[in-house]
C-alpha cells in the first residue's frame, strides 16, 4: 500500500478536483454571461433577464458590429501593429543572435550584458 492508496490522499485528490472545478466555473461564468447577452435582445438585457442562456435570441449586436467602420479600422490596426511589431522583433532578435554567436566579435560581452540587463526589468 503506497502513499497514493491512502484514504487521506484520495480525499485530498477529490477535494482538490472539486475546488478546481468550482474555480474553473467561477472563471468561465462571466464569459458565458457576456456571450449570452450578445445573443439576447436589448430589452431582456436591460430588464436583467439574461444570465447563462440568451433570452429573445437575435443577432442585432453582431450586425451592428460588422457594419461599424470603426470596428474594421481597429481590426486592421491590430493586424498591422501585430505583423509589423512581430517582424521588427524577429529581425532584431535574429541579428543580435547571429552577432552574439561570433566568438571573435569585439564588444560581444557588452552586448550580452545589455541583453541580460533588460531581462531584470519589466516593461511596465
How many beta strands in the DSSP annotation? Answer: 0
Number of domains: 2
Assembly annotation: single chain
Tally of alpha and pi helices = 5
C-alpha termini separation:
52 Å
Return Rg in Å: 27 Å
Unreliable spans are none
Mean pLDDT across the residues is 92
Q: Which percent range fits the helix content?
A: over 70%
Query: What can be said about the biggest beta sheet?
Result: none
| Content-based structural category | mainly alpha
Q: Output the helix-strand order.
A: HHHHH
The portion of residues forming beta strands comes to under 5%
Shape call: flat
Attribute tags:
transmembrane; 5 helices; 124 residues; MetI-like_sf; flat
What is this structure, in a nutshell?
This protein has 124 residues and is mostly helical. 72% of the residues lie in helices and 0% in strands. It folds into two domains: 58 residues; 57 residues.
How does this model look, in words?
This protein is an all-alpha fold and 124 residues long. It folds into 2 domains: 58 residues; 57 residues. The protein is built from 5 helices and no strands. It is flat, with a radius of gyration of 27 Å.
